[in-house]
Amino acid sequence: MVRLSADILGRSPLCPLLLLVALPFIVLNGVAFMQARSMTHFVSVGQRTAKPEKLSLTDKIRVILTGVEIPRPENQITPQEIQLVYETHRIAISKASEENLEAWYIPAQKSAQKSRGLVLFFPPYGSSKAALLAPTKIFHDLGYDALLVDFRGAGGSTGNNTTLECVRQKMCDRLYL
How many domains does the chain divide into? Predict the structure, then answer.
């Protein structure tokens, strides 16, 4: 039965047309998959892919087919280096895995009688919480506590892959509750 259908498909005038339509679809989906994967998985070593205007034609084609390379964001400095007292906390993502998020808690300036509130800071894509120390210092000086949280795969948190927005929302909800 299988051989009969293969014979019919092989002799059908629609077969080349079907291949002509299906092949580009499959290739484009493969490229889209590689692009999405490269945006959600950091590389452990190496440098960030250069800007398009600095890439050769061969490199541009490679990036189009395989996606960009973004090194895992690391915390280059700590709050202590800008004279802020802080505590490091680990927040479990789930009980089933060993993965966790790293957070820095920076209490309000000591001269303030009472904290004016808590400000949560989350780094942008491809960055870590250390990049948020300048705005944190401003809020600290205004009397606010701060909690800086690295998403999965960044800074002191575990993993090499980023999270999708729905997973980030769940992590934020877990922090809040």
Answer: 2
User: Which residues span the domain enclosing 30?
Assistant: 2-66
Radius of gyration of the chain (CA): 24
Claim: this prediction has a pTM higher than 0.85: no
> 118 and 56: one domain?
no
Whether 131 maps to a domain, the answer reads: yes
Here the tokens at position 138 are 């401003």
The closest of 168, 127, 72, 161 to 135, measured between CA atoms, is 127
| Sequence-separated (6 or more) residues with CB below 8 Å from residue 17 | none
Are 106 and 172 within one domain?
A: yes
> What digits encode the pLDDT tens for the residues 58-105?
999 999 999 999 898 999 999 999 999 999 999 888 777 788 899 999
Instruction: Give the position of tokens 């890439």.
Output: 55
Same domain, 41 and 109: no
User: Regarding beta strands 145-149 and 118-121, do their DSSP bridges make them parallel or antiparallel, or are they unpaired?
Assistant: parallel
State whether 83 and 135 are in the same domain. Answer: yes
Is residue 29 located within the same domain as residue 88?
Answer: no
- Convert the pLDDT of each residue in 34-57 to its tens digit: 998 888 888 888 888 999 999 999
As a whole number of Å, the end-to-end CA separation of the chain is: 59
Residue keyed to tokens 């290739």: 27
Amino acid at 136: T
> Quick one: CA torsion of 164, 170, 173, 175, rounded to 10 degrees?
-80
